[in-house]
Amino acid sequence: MLTDEYRYKIFKLVEANPEVSQRELARKLGISLGKTNFCLKALIDKGLIKVNNFRNSNNKLAYAYKLTPSGIDEKANVTIRFLKKKMKEYELLKQEIENISQEVRHDSH
Amino acid sequence: MLTDEYRYKIFKLVEANPEVSQRELARKLGISLGKTNFCLKALIDKGLIKVNNFRNSNNKLAYAYKLTPSGIDEKANVTIRFLKKKMKEYELLKQEIENISQEVRHDSH
DNA sequence: TTCATGCGTTCAACAAATGAACACAAAATA
DNA sequence: TATTTTGTGTTCATTTGTTGAACGCATGAA
């Protein structure tokens, strides 16, 4: 399942390091290789990321994942969406902590 | 899967309203009836909650879920554990929001 | 008696995630 | 050159977690 969390993180990681492998991506995302492949391919299929084969400094064939122009746009959108979601979570969490703290104080007195 | 979140919420809901049905519990927990039954039974099997059959004011047979003495102890423990977990989440979330906010500011300038 | 309601319980079906296994290409080694 | 090793993306059977319709049962209502 491809959520904004993974959209955001994949865009960010790929932009920072286009030569990242799917295995390393999986490790950094904290998810399995299979899911990483699924999410990444979804972004590729939508034309937001493209795959380049290129020769690196050692003349070795390597993969590079690059954000397309629409991918760059989408990264900005997703980042804002994800941030807003996190800020909402933050407020809810703050309230929940206050509520539980009050329960704890109340129960122990 | 029975996590501290549901342990905490079930203890709290059952203590506040022992006559709650599993369907109402499910609704308040925001999970399915099957999962509610699974979690509640786990707490019953551990001797933390006991089931009473009793006659209510209309002489109708009804169920009541009551925290046992060890259940009351465990509720206090779980509440503290859950609160600590939420406070850790809170700090992580705060940091994450700061990081993303900075990215957004940086990218748009 | 018969029907309707509401209870806990079950479990087939679904959804999501995993990671071992695979085909392939390049590099390293014999 | 030929062979083995390494590292890539890809696949998919398996596992894990969740759902909610369906069931048996007990009570109240008709």
Automatic annotation (TrEMBL), chains A, B:
Xref: InterPro entries? MarR_EPS (IPR026433), WH-like_DNA-bd_sf (IPR036388), WH_DNA-bd_sf (IPR036390)
Q: Which residues form the signal peptide?
A: none
What this protein is called in its record is: Transcriptional regulator, MarR family
Q: Which organism is it from?
A: Methylophaga thiooxydans DMS010
